Amino acid sequence: MSSYTAPLCTSTAPLFPPGYISRLPPPVDAADVEPVLRALQSAQRPVIYYGGGCLDARDELREFAERTGIPLASTFMGLGVVPADHPNVSVFLSHA
Hints:
This protein is of the alpha/beta class. It has a domain at 46-92. 25% of the residues lie in helices and 10% in strands. It contains 2 helices and 3 strands; from the N terminus they run H-E-H-E-E. Helix 2 links the parallel strand 1 and strand 2 (72-74). The radius of gyration is 19 Å and the shape is extended.
């Protein structure tokens, strides 16, 4: 059996290198979200249809689905953003 251990990373490089652009949009104002929440409350059968663009917001997507109880439907590119066994995942949708 080998006794090799990987060396510790001692880099002092910045976490976000120069030119890094976050893929997440800036936070929105509560006033901008209220109309969306009202529309969701009045919807008879809402579904969150998400894709690969949600990869960097997977935690937020899961929390929103859990808090609202709205079922999740994924595109092919969104597979893996939310685990398939998550209680809110209902279907995988694709387009031709």
